[in-house]
Amino acid sequence: MTKLLEWLCFLLVYFVTWLLVLTKYINLNISDEWNSFVVYFPVYTVFLVGIYSLIVVLWRVYSFNDCPEAAKELQQQIKAAREDLKLKGLRI
């Protein structure tokens, strides 16, 4: 099962469960105050997933390691490529 299929199955189960609770096909005996929470539950979920994603991206950017050896190697490869292109008559 691919990751896309896993996510689509999860979203389908989530949406169907939410729809069944919203239409009161599944009776949870909740008050009207909590019923308004159920109505907007997907919005809250999207908001929380967005916050989680933002935190993960920021943490990974913060903890990203520098690679000075790889930078030197890349600069040497760029220099070699420029010299090779000059030999072939291309001006940079």
Automatic annotation (TrEMBL):
<feature type="transmembrane region" description="Helical">
    <location>
        <begin position="38"/>
        <end position="62"/>
    </location>
</feature>
<dbReference type="GO" id="GO:0033185">
    <property type="term" value="C:dolichol-phosphate-mannose synthase complex"/>
</dbReference>
<comment type="pathway">
    <text>Protein modification; protein glycosylation.</text>
</comment>
<keyword id="KW-0472">Membrane</keyword>
<dbReference type="GO" id="GO:0005789">
    <property type="term" value="C:endoplasmic reticulum membrane"/>
</dbReference>
<protein>
    <recommendedName>
        <fullName>Dolichol-phosphate mannosyltransferase subunit 3</fullName>
    </recommendedName>
</protein>
<keyword id="KW-0812">Transmembrane</keyword>
<dbReference type="GO" id="GO:0006506">
    <property type="term" value="P:GPI anchor biosynthetic process"/>
</dbReference>
<comment type="function">
    <text>Stabilizer subunit of the dolichol-phosphate mannose (DPM) synthase complex; tethers catalytic subunit to the ER.</text>
</comment>
<keyword id="KW-1133">Transmembrane helix</keyword>
<dbReference type="Pfam" id="PF08285">
    <property type="entry name" value="DPM3"/>
</dbReference>
<keyword id="KW-0256">Endoplasmic reticulum</keyword>
<comment type="subunit">
    <text>Component of the dolichol-phosphate mannose (DPM) synthase complex.</text>
</comment>
<dbReference type="InterPro" id="IPR013174">
    <property type="entry name" value="DPM3"/>
</dbReference>
<comment type="similarity">
    <text>Belongs to the DPM3 family.</text>
</comment>
<feature type="transmembrane region" description="Helical">
    <location>
        <begin position="7"/>
        <end position="26"/>
    </location>
</feature>
